[in-house]
Design a protein that fits this description.
- There is one protein chain.
- The chain is mainly alpha-helical.
- It has one domain (3-70).
- The protein is built from three helices and no strands.
Amino acid sequence: MTPEIAIYIGYAASLFTILSFILKDLRKIRIVNLIGCICFVVYGIFSGMLWPVIIPNAIICFVQIYHLLTAKKK
């Protein structure tokens, strides 16, 4: 992957994370934040294994997936 693509993935990750703060529906927040975290993990991997970026975002991915799977249907 070229460094330019990795940079665009990083920008997309930031955009999704910011968007998750704007939304009101908790399920949508979790989904959008999950997408942002996945983008941050990919960005961290392709930018030279940036562990301070990869580790917390990978953990947040698992937290978001857990909550999405265990959420009670309304």
